[in-house]
């Protein structure tokens, strides 16, 4: 890509200032403010719809400059007062031993000299650094094993220029615990000066807003302690030889469990707190973990570790290219700055929510921005999967510029893995996201739009029907709670609202209990336990249940941002059926299916929903996501045993899916051939309606593909009509029940 960028904050209000960070290989670029309405260029739909919004920035030319993506996590401990003799003890577990790149475990860094304990191609080395000169001063005899814990003790003498390091495999079996010892001399400066300790890197410098991390480590580092003084260091090494715990008290010891949601690595003894760079994963298992407990707060000493990666990224740290003050009176909606230069363009979307104190609007769209964040930059190599799994996948087109940029820069989603093979569980908004967070971003798995571009189907429909709406984002809902919803009578979900925090679920329940009316237009929603950091620029998940592309390691299911268990909400007793009546039943990347109306759809309680609809099949026509049918891609079903209210009406059911649709893993108890759409009755999508307290209600469709069917036949179709009936009836006076039946009014 010749041009790309990102914005400081997604969700904003009029009067707030946003910073935009742009990388452009050309000498200049210009921008254009646009309101996004529809992003699918398919001739089967209404086409691209974007409104140019007049703004002074549209008339300017900006200086172009390339800005690099720099990655890699580490910890910096500043202001370490050097003593003649110092020692560091701890443990490490290398997860990318095949790499020829230098990977630093610990570095003593002083103004004139540095000394690093490293791994290169699976061999432990000691390197000294003086100025621009790097010297390998010792190399271990034997390589270490991948994914195995080793304990180490590193001692240095800054006056004599001597070092020695012991390390051995952490094993209860004596034959496995054979250690290695390397020692030697290194070039040393005159005098003892103030310096730094680095864990997971050789150097770490902040240049402007961007961290430059040298020789980042891939693997875990744990149980770190610093000993100062000749006697203490000597006793440490003696204890190492005798295979016993040291009797000396550390000068500093670092606790990876406490304050694990922050940039602080606290010193549990003194004041040498470390600064965490690029968010390595915390609340991970250490060298003594053997399944004693999986709760890091029951036995924190078993989890006193962090997992570092050479591709960790918290903030790209680019320099600001331009800023934008959201104008007073700018209506709530999805906006973007279109970036343009010779030979390239990109969009940087952002979401404008209402001004504080603005006049109330009846309808809001809850944009699933946590899901955008998790999915952004997802790698999609469809060539490795057989055609029967992806029968309508795009297998022929070359990689797009956006895909090439993502691959070349080692960007990833939380569906991908780090370079060492571990699952990526943390995602940031502070990076370019050209895949799935752009108005025209399509999914290679089935050729349809996904995430932001798929939610534009709903925006286009609301605009076309003249239904006034505002936006609420997942970030708003998490940080503002039910206040973010209370001003609206009706909330519409996006097309794939998959990632929810506990605060979001609590707020949705509060909204429903107070008479709010919720229209769930998603599939596979309210599924994964998700937690943002303190400002929402990062979100974290841990995958150890559910439909997943990687597994959290045993004992690593707890979220460092909240201290709570991750996984799926269903496994924590908060299945989606409790909130919206339906929950994940199956995923398939083949053509979808229509819904067949049930007898319940003719119940008097549902009559207002089907006004003007003569068809028995709902969505029996082509769609823009799954090729055909309103139920497709990921689908949800009612389940009374999982929380679908007993008084809920199942109005329609889509069945007859191909075997490309397979039952959700949470419903698979034993492996048989009968979990596909042609044989399993639970591979289905249900339309559900039920009343909630205080004249509230829920209407759910349980399908990602639903919104993509709204525009068929110039918006004149059964999906559009049913959705309009729901929304307009839900918009009616909330002091009156939706139906004459009082089933839900007194719950």
What does this structure look like?
- With 747 residues, this protein is mostly beta strands.
- It has a 9-stranded mixed β-sheet, with helices on both faces. Strands 12-11-10-9-16-7-22-21 form an 8-stranded antiparallel β-sheet, with no helix packed on it. Strands 8, 13, 14, 15, 19, 20, 23 and 24 form an 8-stranded antiparallel β-sheet that branches.
- It is elongated and about 90 Å long.
- The model is unreliable at 743-747 (pLDDT under 50).
In short:
The chain is mainly beta and 747 residues long. Helix content is 10%, strand content 31%. The protein folds into three domains: 101 residues, Sandwich (Immunoglobulin-like); 235 residues, Jelly Rolls, CATH 2.60.120.200; 368 residues, no CATH class.
Total number of β-strand segments?
44
Q: Which blocks of ≥5 consecutive residues have pLDDT under 50?
A: 743-747
What's the helix count? 8
Q: How does the major sheet shape up?
A: 9 strands, mixed
- Structural class assignment: mainly beta
**Domains counted in the coordinates: how many?**
3
Helix fraction bin: 10-25%
Query: Which overall shape is indicated by the principal axes computed on the Cα atoms?
Result: elongated
Strand line-up in the sheet with most strands: 30-28-31-33-44-43-41-38-39
Distance between the termini: 55 Å
Please indicate the percent range of residues in DSSP E strands (runs of 2 or more). 25-35%
Instruction: Quote the average pLDDT.
Output: 94
Give the radius of gyration: 28 Å
Protein name: N,N-dimethylformamidase beta subunit-like C-terminal domain-containing protein
Domain N,N-dimethylformamidase beta subunit-like C-terminal: 304-717
Pfam family, one: DMFA2_C
């Amino acid at each position: 890509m010749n041009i790309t960028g990102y914005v400081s904050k997604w969700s904003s209000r009029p009067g707030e200032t946003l910073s935009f960070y742009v990388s452009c290989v050309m000498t200049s670029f210009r921008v254009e403010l646009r309101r996004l309405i529809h992003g699918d260029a398919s001739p089967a739909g209404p086409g691209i719809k974007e409104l140019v919004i007049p703004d002074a920035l549209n008339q300017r030319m900006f200086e172009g400059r390339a800005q690099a993506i720099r990655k890699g996590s580490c910890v910096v401990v500043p202001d370490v007062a050097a003593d003649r003799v110092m020692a560091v003890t701890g443990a490490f577990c290398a997860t990318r031993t095949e790499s020829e790149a230098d990977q630093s475990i610990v570095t003593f860094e002083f103004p004139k000299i540095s000394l690093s304990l490293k791994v290169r191609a699976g061999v432990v080395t000691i390197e000294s650094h003086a100025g621009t000169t790097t010297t390998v001063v010792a190399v271990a005899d034997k390589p270490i094993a991948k994914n195995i814990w080793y304990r180490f003790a590193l001692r240095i003498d800054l006056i004599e220029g001597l070092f020695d390091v012991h390390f051995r495999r952490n094993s209860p079996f004596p034959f496995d615990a054979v250690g290695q010892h390397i020692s030697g001399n290194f070039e040393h400066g005159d005098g003892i000066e103030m310096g730094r300790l680095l864990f997971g890197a050789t150097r770490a410098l902040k240049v402007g807003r961007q961290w430059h991390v040298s020789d980042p480590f891939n693997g875990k580092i744990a149980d770190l302690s610093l000993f100062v003084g000749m006697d203490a260091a000597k006793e440490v090494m003696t204890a190492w030889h005798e295979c016993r715990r040291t009797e000396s008290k550390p000068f500093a010891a670092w606790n990876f469990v406490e304050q694990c949601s922050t940039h602080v690595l606290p010193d549990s003894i003194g004041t040498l707190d470390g600064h965490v760079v690029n968010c390595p994963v915390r609340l991970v298992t250490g060298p003594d973990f053997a399944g004693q407990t999986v709760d890091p707060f029951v036995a924190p000493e078993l989890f006193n570790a962090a997992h570092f990666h050479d591709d960790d990224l918290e903030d790209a740290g680019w320099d600001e290219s331009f800023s934008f003050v959201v104008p007073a009176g700018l209506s709530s909606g999805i906006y973007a700055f279109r970036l343009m230069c010779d030979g390239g363009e990109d969009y940087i979307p952002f979401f404008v929510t209402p001004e504080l104190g603005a006049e109330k609007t009846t309808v809001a769209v809850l944009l699933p921005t946590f899901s955008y964040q998790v999915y952004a930059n997802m790698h999609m190599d469809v060539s490795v999967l057989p055609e029967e799994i992806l029968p309508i996948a795009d297998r022929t087109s070359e990689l797009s510029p956006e895909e090439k940029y993502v691959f070349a820069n080692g960007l990833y989603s939380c569906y991908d893995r780090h370079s060492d093979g571990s699952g990526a569980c943390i995602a940031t908004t502070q990076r370019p996201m050209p895949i799935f967070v752009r108005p025209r971003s399509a999914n290679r798995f089935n050729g349809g739009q996904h995430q932001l571009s798929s939610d534009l189907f709903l925006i286009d429909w609301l605009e076309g029907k003249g239904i006034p709406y505002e936006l609420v984002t997942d970030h708003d809902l998490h940080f503002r709670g039910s206040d973010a919803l209370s001003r609206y009578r009706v909330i519409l979900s996006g097309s794939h609202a998959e990632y929810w925090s506990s605060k979001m679920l609590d707020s949705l329940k509060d909204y429903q209990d107070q008479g709010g009316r919720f229209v769930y237009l998603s599939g596979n929603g309210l599924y994964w336990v998700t937690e943002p950091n303190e400002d929402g620029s990062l979100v974290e998940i841990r995958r150890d249940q559910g439909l997943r592309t990687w597994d959290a390691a045993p004992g690593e299911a707890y979220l460092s941002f909240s201290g709570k268990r991750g996984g799926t909400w269903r496994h924590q007793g908060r299945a989606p059926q409790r909130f919206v009546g339906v929950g994940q039943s199956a995923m398939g990347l083949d053509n979808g299916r229509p819904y067949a109306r049930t007898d319940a759809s003719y119940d008097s309680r549902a009559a207002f929903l089907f006004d003007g609809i003569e068809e028995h099949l709902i969505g029996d026509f082509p769609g823009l996501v799954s090729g055909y049918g309103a139920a497709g891609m990921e689908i949800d079903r009612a389940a009374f045993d999982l929380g679908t209210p007993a008084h809920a009406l199942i109005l329609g059911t889509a069945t007859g899916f191909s075997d490309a649709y397979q039952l959700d893993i949470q419903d698979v108890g034993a492996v048989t051939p009968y979990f596909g759409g042609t044989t399993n009755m639970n591979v289905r999508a249900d339309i559900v309606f039920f009343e909630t307290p205080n004249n509230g209600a829920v209407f759910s469709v349980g399908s990602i593909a639903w919104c993509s069917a709204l525009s068929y036949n110039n918006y004149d179709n059964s999906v559009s009509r049913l959705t309009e009936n729901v929304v307009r009836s839900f918009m009616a006076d909330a002091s009156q029940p939706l139906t004459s039946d009082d089933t839900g009014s007194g719950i």
